[in-house]
Write a structure and sequence with these properties.
The chain has one domain. It is flat. The protein has 112 residues and is mainly alpha-helical. The N and C termini lie close together (9 Å). The protein is 79% helix and 0% strand. Helix 3 (56-77) runs antiparallel to helix 4 (85-104). The chain is built from 5 helices and no strands.
Length: 112
């Protein structure tokens, strides 16, 4: 399987795990807590596979950047948490950074 598929799995499961963390209500609800632990385990395993092919700094920038964007959207539309103008500007800059890394980094193109 190509490293980018593992990165997608890592991002999605990290976002699901963070959402479950919110729903665990400070570790007081066991089902979301179990989901959180499972999702984070899958996320970190998948991320470790990606690290075999791509430099850690680039992977982490993409993983955390896209995770921030997705969890911000979930916070807004699922948990009804507002995003102010500064938040939108910051998220836009994160997206721009991920696009630059994904589109122009030679290190990503050398991964198997």
């Amino acid at each position: 399987m190509h490293w980018s598929l593992y990165l997608v799995i890592a991002i999605i499961t990290e976002v699901l795990g963070t959402s479950a963390l919110k729903m665990s209500d400070g570790f007081t609800r066991p089902i979301p807590l179990v989901i959180m632990v499972a999702c984070f385990a899958i996320a970190f395993f998948s991320l470790s596979i990606v690290m075999r092919s791509i430099p850690v700094g680039l992977i982490y920038a993409m993983w955390s950047g896209l995770g921030i964007v997705l969890i911000s959207l979930i916070g807004r539309f699922i948990f009804n948490q507002p995003i102010d103008t500064a938040g939108l500007v910051g998220i836009s800059l994160i997206v721009a950074g991920v696009v630059v890394i994904g589109g122009f980094s030679n290190s990503l193109n050398s991964g198997s």
